[in-house]
Amino acid sequence: MFEQHILCHKLPKSYDSIDADVNREQCINKRNKTIQALKRRMLNVEVEQYEIEIQHYEHSYQQGLNALYSQITNPTSSDHKCQVHIVLHFMKSYFNHRTNLLIRQIRYKESCLHVKLLSHHRRHSLLKKKTIDVYPQIIVDIPKVSLNRVQLDYLSRNGPNYVRPNQTYVYSCKYRQKRMNQEYNRMLDVIVPYLVRVHYMSNTSTIIKTFSQELATCLYERYMAPMSYLHMDRARQELKLVKSIQHRLNKSKYTLRVTDKSGIFHIGRAIDYEHKGEAYRQKTRAYVELESDPLWTVFDKVIHLLNDLRSKKHILAWQHEKMMPKRDKVALAYLYFLPKPHKEGTPLRPIVSSMKTPTTGISKFLDKLLRPLFDKHVRSTTIIDSVDLIHRLEAYVSNGYLKPTTYLCTFDITDLYTMLPQEESLNILTEFLLEHGYHKVKGIAIDAIRKLARIVLTENVFVYNNKFYRQILGGAMGSAFTLTLANIFMWKWEKELVRRQAASNEIYGRYIDDIFITSNESLDTINEWLEQANYFHSNIKLVRQIGKSVPFLDILVENNNGLLTTSVYHKEAAEPYIVPFNSDHPRHVLRDVIDNALLRAVRCSSTLSAFNHERRSIKLMLLYNGYPPRYISSRFMKFFTKYQPTSTVSLLIDKENDFVALRCELLNKPTVSEHQIASRIAKTIEHPQKDTTENPLVQSKLDKKSKWLNNLIIHYTHEKRLQSFKTDIHFLWNKTFEKTPVITTRLLVGNRNSPNLTQDLVHRR
């Protein structure tokens, strides 16, 4: 029942009194954050007490059950023994029946309470005194905002990732027909070329025409099918509300953005964004204003460079085609800013959206060309995720290097992307390739790579507030190649630190612009040589944190008098916001959210108590975002029973040894980052032989290459009313191609999401 109160936004009144107890002299955002954190901690404690009580009842139940079994399992004869087994069987059946009956009764009472609480919340939400809720809330940096309570609550409750349900149904039949034709053409544009290329069919063959006609019929039936009044009304009401929010934002000249770390909405005045953006440009001096639109000048430069390289046979025809921009598809990049409300004054983070620029093709090509080389040769000093760091720490401990006096240190590099010196970065790129024996990469000479990299860096132009700019320092945040170049630049910068750490058997690891090290030297010595590191390069400045407990990525690492512990770390700015349960996402997305959160909790928590604390936080986060308690319980049950049996009532792991065994099993499974790196490295091996690599994960990717050749992947835009379409298209595929070689092709049907609230409401240009 307690969970239903959280789900329905009906917390005890005692929580409202906390607002008055917190220091009012703090800035509003910081004060609100403090109140939220305090309330969430209180809820976590209450959930813990709730679970302890359940465990107590379950323990008493098991004790009584065991005592009963022991009294009746003392047979004096074989007949008696047989009768005892029969009695025990019926008793267990009865107990299971009673347990399930009680659970159903509890669920029914929960449903009744849910309806009652929800009705109460709807009636009193507008009359309720404004308080700081535990739920993720929109941040309003305007003294008196023109949006009403309903509009603000909608943005807070649903957040940036929310997708309105059944979006196309509220439009006219003509519009739905147009959308249906778009989906139809997208799928056929993938299917028909595959059948022609792989199975040598004519695109005018009867079987392709039959499949096309039936696909069109299936789509028409799905898009034009009637929908229940309840769902139709919800779709219309939400569209109306979103349009009213758009109107208010435009009329009042507000800027709606998604916050940098917490991922929730932020409303500020457009004029404030302009002033802060100008201040950032003055501070970094990384941008110069241009007099006119540079798009076609850059386009011509890219065309000329690619044609020149191709004419001299420095690149192959397919590489030339891959990088060549299309005149009808290019657009100028644009700059926008993400607010950081967790910091004083709400500073901004610049992002350049360069998805359609003339240099995008080159940037993506260089990233795919060079990043696998970085992954391969600098893996020993690169931390790819928190699990990778845990493995390094465990090896450090097992080798006996961790002592009670060992210090842990993390440091962050300030504005790495925008502070890269362009020409020097290109020189370091050349040095990196030569040092690792590459005079050519996939047939492309270093000189050609350098020319391609230079045009990506130097022709980084964009528009902001109808003014044109060129970036003269660093690379664009948002460009694929910038990350790879920054990593290679840091490879050169960190050499001295790597050598020093290796000589003393200490850890050195870097994740882009975050670095983690260990040291058994004195605090003064550590500060001294880290201060020296600040002068390795004039553009690279470090912000360090040293102690026996430091956060890195999403884990908190602690040295408790020579005992290493880790737990999940949530940044101060983080908000418990995820995809809302009522969002029109495919259901597997919601399942993955829970499974991934639990997986991270198990891997990052070194003790059962740390895991249980994080598990309760996950449960509360799910409740904040509208996930029903029954759904949460079922997903938790499936996750834990996948690895080991758990209690059917509390769904808890209550033994330290069981948790350690589970954690070891999950830590030894490859992470997503490891799979991605292995895939990139495997793609660099052009003619793989059996057992060509020592890395078993890379070898597995090589072995799977041939299997994927017989796969066909298509996508459609997901809507709740189209959820059976995936089954329909599989049925149609099997029916049409049943007696042809095409049936050996594995058809994979994926989803595209409809526009979410960010796409509906956030205008970045």
Automatic annotation (TrEMBL):
Sequence ranges assigned to domain Reverse transcriptase in this UniProt record: 319-568
InterPro entries in the cross-refs: HTH_animal (IPR058912), RT_dom (IPR000477)
Pfam families: HTH_animal
Descriptive protein name: Reverse transcriptase domain-containing protein
Organism: Adineta steineri
